[in-house]
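Worked problem 6 (solution included).
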Amino acid sequence: GGMAGLGPFIQKNLQYPQMAKEAGLSGKCFLKFVVNENGSISDVTVLKGVPGCQECDKEAIRVVKMMPSFKPGKQNGRAVKVFFNLPINFQLR
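Solution. The predicted structure is:
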Protein backbone atom coordinates (compact mmCIF):
# COMPACT_ATOMS: atom_id res chain seq x y z
CA GLY A 1 0.00 0.00 0.00
CA GLY A 2 2.99 2.36 -0.09
CA MET A 3 3.15 5.36 2.23
CA ALA A 4 -0.66 5.63 2.16
CA GLY A 5 -0.93 2.09 3.58
CA LEU A 6 1.84 2.50 6.15
CA GLY A 7 -0.10 4.77 8.53
CA PRO A 8 -3.20 2.58 8.76
CA PHE A 9 -1.03 -0.53 9.19
CA ILE A 10 0.78 1.03 12.14
CA GLN A 11 -2.46 2.31 13.71
CA LYS A 12 -4.06 -1.12 13.40
CA ASN A 13 -1.13 -3.09 14.87
CA LEU A 14 0.39 -0.72 17.43
CA GLN A 15 -0.59 -1.47 21.03
CA TYR A 16 -0.03 1.36 23.49
CA PRO A 17 1.97 -0.13 26.40
CA GLN A 18 -0.13 -0.38 29.57
CA MET A 19 2.64 1.10 31.72
CA ALA A 20 2.80 4.15 29.44
CA LYS A 21 -0.99 4.59 29.62
CA GLU A 22 -0.95 4.46 33.41
CA ALA A 23 1.97 6.92 33.64
CA GLY A 24 0.48 9.23 31.00
CA LEU A 25 3.59 8.98 28.80
CA SER A 26 3.47 10.11 25.19
CA GLY A 27 5.91 11.19 22.50
CA LYS A 28 7.52 10.18 19.22
CA CYS A 29 9.82 7.26 18.59
CA PHE A 30 12.13 7.70 15.60
CA LEU A 31 13.24 4.43 14.00
CA LYS A 32 15.75 3.60 11.28
CA PHE A 33 15.65 0.39 9.28
CA VAL A 34 16.91 -1.10 6.04
CA VAL A 35 14.77 -2.32 3.16
CA ASN A 36 16.88 -5.07 1.59
CA GLU A 37 17.25 -5.99 -2.07
CA ASN A 38 14.42 -8.52 -1.73
CA GLY A 39 12.10 -6.05 0.06
CA SER A 40 12.53 -7.52 3.53
CA ILE A 41 13.11 -5.30 6.55
CA SER A 42 16.22 -5.57 8.75
CA ASP A 43 18.46 -3.63 11.13
CA VAL A 44 15.62 -1.87 12.97
CA THR A 45 17.11 0.58 15.47
CA VAL A 46 15.81 3.44 17.60
CA LEU A 47 17.30 6.81 16.66
CA LYS A 48 15.39 8.70 19.36
CA GLY A 49 12.97 7.06 21.74
CA VAL A 50 9.94 8.21 23.68
CA PRO A 51 11.33 9.90 26.83
CA GLY A 52 10.94 7.60 29.85
CA CYS A 53 9.24 4.80 27.93
CA GLN A 54 11.43 1.95 26.69
CA GLU A 55 8.28 -0.16 26.32
CA CYS A 56 7.04 2.30 23.66
CA ASP A 57 10.32 1.93 21.77
CA LYS A 58 10.10 -1.89 21.95
CA GLU A 59 6.51 -1.78 20.68
CA ALA A 60 7.50 0.45 17.76
CA ILE A 61 10.29 -1.98 16.82
CA ARG A 62 7.86 -4.92 17.05
CA VAL A 63 5.40 -3.27 14.66
CA VAL A 64 8.09 -2.32 12.12
CA LYS A 65 9.46 -5.88 12.13
CA MET A 66 6.00 -7.27 11.33
CA MET A 67 5.41 -4.94 8.35
CA PRO A 68 4.94 -6.71 5.03
CA SER A 69 7.77 -6.62 2.50
CA PHE A 70 8.41 -3.40 0.62
CA LYS A 71 9.19 -3.00 -3.06
CA PRO A 72 12.99 -2.80 -3.10
CA GLY A 73 14.73 0.41 -4.10
CA LYS A 74 16.38 0.42 -7.51
CA GLN A 75 19.50 2.11 -8.78
CA ASN A 76 20.58 1.72 -12.40
CA GLY A 77 17.96 -1.02 -12.78
CA ARG A 78 19.31 -3.12 -9.90
CA ALA A 79 17.68 -3.67 -6.53
CA VAL A 80 19.65 -2.05 -3.70
CA LYS A 81 19.42 -1.66 0.07
CA VAL A 82 17.70 1.53 1.21
CA PHE A 83 17.72 3.17 4.65
CA PHE A 84 14.34 4.37 5.87
CA ASN A 85 13.56 6.68 8.82
CA LEU A 86 10.12 6.41 10.37
CA PRO A 87 8.56 8.41 13.22
CA ILE A 88 5.90 6.63 15.27
CA ASN A 89 3.74 8.84 17.46
CA PHE A 90 2.53 7.59 20.85
CA GLN A 91 -0.28 9.86 21.99
CA LEU A 92 -3.05 9.23 24.48
CA ARG A 93 -6.52 10.20 23.33
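Discussion: The mean pLDDT is 94.
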